[in-house]
Amino acid sequence: MTIYTGRGDAGETDLRDMTRVSKTAPRIEAYGTVDEANALIGTAYPTGYDDLDDVLERVQNHLHIVQADLANPDPDPEDPRVRPAHAEELEERIDEFDAELEPLRSFILPGGSETGAALHHTRAVVRRAERRTVALARAEETNEAVITYLNRLSDLLFTLGRVANARDGVPEQSPSY
Predict the structure, then answer these.
(1) How far is CA 159 from the centre of its chain?
(2) Which helix (DSSP H) or strand (DSSP E) does residue 21 occupy?
(3) 96-111, pLDDT tens digit by residue?
(4) Phi, psi of 45 (to 5 degrees)
(5) Residue range 141-170: mean pLDDT, rounded
């Protein structure tokens, strides 16, 4: 099997149900941005911390479900779908990791250690994926659990970025106004 097909040369691609759409369609923008976020997680992984790595590996697998869900305008019951339990799992991880951090007293600048900065960068791309998915949901039927998941994922990545920086001994910096 060859990696190239030539089917996208005219600016169109297939959805999961084989519907042909423009590569700039809102659905493609949404799941393409999720793909970008997933690739960015790969720049932070491995972190050097087993517990962070376990969570990031799980998230990368979740993001494949998110993409499959977004790529399918008319899912069957057995198709991959984001469920409320996916976001609940993230909330549990946020609470666990947040317990080891100093409470936030102000906004912080994204950055820090190599891992911390990569996680903050990924968080920003997940926020864009969330915005793209909200735009899609305003135009077409979309699984609302995807939006909740992406919102919670950005919170998790923010928390993990803080944890990585704290463990790496990199102090947080607040913006100056």
Answers:
(1) 14
(2) strand 20-22
(3) 999 999 999 999 999 9
(4) -105, 130
(5) 98
Q: Taking the model in full, what pTM does it have? A: 0.95
Which pair of tokens denotes residue 55? 């969570």
Asked whether 170 and 113 are in contact (CB, 8 A), the reply is yes
pLDDT digits (tens, 9 = 90+) for 59-94: 999 999 999 999 999 999 999 999 999 999 999 999
- What's the rounded mean pLDDT across residues 27-41? 97
Torsion of CA 126, 128, 136, 71, to 10 degrees: -40
pLDDT value of residue 93: 98
Separation CA 73–CA 152 (nearest Å): 23
CATH class of 12-101+110-167: mainly alpha
- Checking if the pLDDT of 35 tops 90, the result is yes
Domain ranges of the chain: 12-101+110-167
Rounded CA separation 139/107 (Å): 33
Q: CA torsion angle for 113, 119, 122, 123 (degrees, to 10)?
A: -120
Tell me the one-letter amino acid at 34: V
How far is residue 94's CA from residue 36's CA, in Å, rounded to a whole number? 22
DSSP-assigned letters across all residues of 67-121 = HHHHT-SS--TTS----HHHHHHHHHHHHHHHTTSPPP-S---S--SHHHHHHHH
